[in-house]
């Protein structure tokens, strides 16, 4: 029978006994087949396990269902690195994405404790630290993910794709290996493949269907320098050192976003610095191991993050982080086109993003505030037309009350965000529409990617409860407005065609209500099942302009090791 371990802030179901495995390396691979029947073993007192729903934390610290301490994150049950003050919460302020038992970036996980068999707590632990020499200085970590998603939409993309009652079925597989060569060198490689099918489906391209691709392959060197953990990463890699609403890993399609280039970082106890320069990866379906460099798409910049001194509000001590960043975008194609009163103008864009993010948490409240200003140039593809300056902005805030120690672990708050719009009547002059072209994480906004972060204001309540250690429920009810009535409404790749010309003003500023709900079950350490559902209820004037109401439902089953 399952036994239960609990602490003030967390509980976890513990199943099974500690595996004892001293067989050959090849035999440990066979154990993958039994992952869904395996569990985690007896706990040591110092492990202080977090709840099961935090096995794979989402980006955005407020998105966590319960509070997780640095001590929990550095226990044998979690696999964050040694990141000092940045081990707070889900660890994303360390710059490598959120990490719990597993991370969005597998190479950010630290499985070194599993070189000792007495630290095994799961049937698949033999795959996480495979010794390749007697001393254990050379060792291999295997990682993987398989995701199956069923997706229903009653009127996709506000009815603009000409499909009704669309059903999509997608499968994604990731398989990675990290070779550790002593204490300083690591080599990480990852393969990806994806398939997609369904009925009345739409929008599939190479990011959904891919035979086999090289998702990541890079070399990393780490060394203690001037008291900091200093590293250099060269090659094809994920990049997650930015607010997830601005840039993320392209989670909705099967093929995640990856970059080619170099990154350097230095991390002290309470301060870290990051610099990078990348070109994007081309994604092709039919060339096995294909996908070269997309020189026309670039990402570059730098970041400084500080764990601020603790302070008190209403007698409660606040942990907080301040992230200051400058980030450059260069891109072309459909994403770079500028909307006009009728149609659009093709070209390329260069945008410089200067921004900040300030996050803080105390026992009874949390907040997350961020802002970005964009400057740059739009270069039309028609050489006879001069380039246009860019001046755009975005602000976002989440704040609320949390009660981690109660039985439901509720978070009750409000989320508001605003993204600047332009003026489509102008063929010249400053372009003011905000742009986030590199796959921002939409789970905190619109999982379907129907409406993008451009010319938009969104505000509404949100609620999260975790009634069981393996279960989390979230509800959001945002209302949407256009920031400028002279600019349209945008989806993930372009403006909606129904909202153009004279209908821009006639449709009014209000867009509609977008209620959303999510239930997540961590069925077992390796298996997560997530149900998402929602609707978009457009205003009468938006429907008159040509938009349609719609509903959606997603079921996502994910296996990780």
Automatic annotation (TrEMBL):
<dbReference type="InterPro" id="IPR025388">
    <property type="entry name" value="Alginate_export_dom"/>
</dbReference>
<dbReference type="Pfam" id="PF13372">
    <property type="entry name" value="Alginate_exp"/>
</dbReference>
<protein>
    <submittedName>
        <fullName>Alginate export family protein</fullName>
    </submittedName>
</protein>
<feature type="domain" description="Alginate export">
    <location>
        <begin position="139"/>
        <end position="552"/>
    </location>
</feature>
<feature type="region of interest" description="Disordered">
    <location>
        <begin position="62"/>
        <end position="83"/>
    </location>
</feature>
